[in-house]
From TrEMBL:
Saposin B-type domain segment(s): 105-145, 169-210
Peptidase A1 domain location: 1-296
Protein name: Aspartic proteinase oryzasin-1
Keyword Hydrolase (UniProt): yes
Family to which this protein belongs: Belongs to the peptidase A1 family.
SUPFAM superfamilies: Acid proteases, Saposin
Keyword terms, alphabetized: Aspartyl protease, Disulfide bond, Glycoprotein, Hydrolase, Protease, Signal, Vacuole, Zymogen
One GO CC term, this protein: vacuole
Organism annotation: Aegilops tauschii subsp. strangulata (Goatgrass)
Taxonomic superkingdom: Eukaryota
Length: 299
């Protein structure tokens, strides 16, 4: 477009509309300029330090006004419309998730199984039901003769990860299968029922989440801190309602942390990816002519 003289200004800008339902209009990308009605005040610009990803330098990350320390000496960052969440080094994301009370999505599903079906699963095992049929009997797995605890466990050990994931499509079913294995193990050691259920619950806490997604309590948004990113010497804050994603409505609503862990080793990293969670609240300009990236409050 620049070479053909189709645009006067070699920039492109993003406005991501987070309230499309109310206005019936989605976001927009403008080639050759920016729309003044979609941002407030001036843009804060930082130079591109690495071409290709439009990488720039970012300063400290603050949680509730307190430094996390990790990026006080500077971190690399990219603004990426193709990333839904906001990704950063595990050390900081864990700190953030701890402060906002986020637990791994898998952990939550696992705990739901223990609280709602734990006793039932235990009773079936004590009644000497075939372990691989327990989860289909409580209605959490559709048992097709090939899918059961042993099939799932074996695939994780023997097969490529892709295949094991194929076996474990339904998280509630997977969580049930794991609970059965853990309970069998404890029953073999003659543990009491209360101890077994407590132990399985503890194991739930230790489960890492696939893709690092973490759930939070929708009711606690009011007590969560602002998370601030220092760019060009200015602090860009994200409020809880901006960094928590709500999925579903009413009683079925789930709230997911917009922060996900991703460790990119040096020399490329550590790298933050400011995805749509950041680009929603902040109108973003990619200035190709001056090789800089700019952010302003979206409107």
């Amino acid at each position: 477009m620049v070479e053909q003289g189709l645009i006067s200004d070699p920039v492109f800008s993003f406005w991501l509309n987070r309230h499309a339902d109310d206005e019936g209009e989605g976001g927009e990308i403008i080639f050759g300029g920016m729309d003044p009605k979609h941002y407030v005040g001036e843009h804060t610009y930082v130079p591109v330090t690495q071409k290709g990803y439009w990488q720039f330098d970012m300063g400290d990350v603050l949680v509730g006004g307190k430094s996390t320390g990790f990026c006080a000496g500077g971190c690399a960052a990219i603004a990426d419309s193709g990333t839904s969440l906001l990704a950063g080094p595990t050390a900081i994301i864990t700190e953030i998730n701890e402060k906002i009370g986020a637990a791994g999505v898998v952990s939550q599903e696992c705990k739901t199984i223990v609280s709602q079906y734990g006793q039932q699963i235990l009773d079936l095992l004590l009644a000497e039901t075939q372990p691989k049929k327990v989860c289909s009997q409580v209605g959490l797995c559709t048992f097709d003769g090939t899918r059961g605890v042993s099939a799932g466990i074996r695939s994780v050990v023997d097969d490529e990860p892709v295949k094991s994931n194929g076996l474990r499509t339904d998280p509630m079913c997977s969580a049930c299968e794991m609970a059965v294995v853990w309970m069998q193990n404890q029953l073999a050691q003659n543990k009491t029922q209360d101890l077994i259920l407590d132990y399985v619950n503890q194991l739930c806490n230790r489960l890492p989440s696939p893709m690092g997604e973490s759930a939070v309590d929708c009711a606690s948004l009011g007590s969560m801190p602002d998370i601030e990113f220092t760019i060009g010497g200015k602090k860009f804050a994200l409020k809880p309602e901006e960094y928590i994603l709500k999925v579903g409505e009413g009683a079925a609503a789930q709230c997911i942390s917009g922060f996900t862990a991703m460790d990119i080793p040096p020399p490329r990293g550590p790298l933050w990816i400011l995805g749509d969670v950041f680009m929603g609240p902040y109108h973003t300009v990619f200035d190709y002519g001056k090789l800089r990236v700019g952010f302003a409050k979206a409107a």
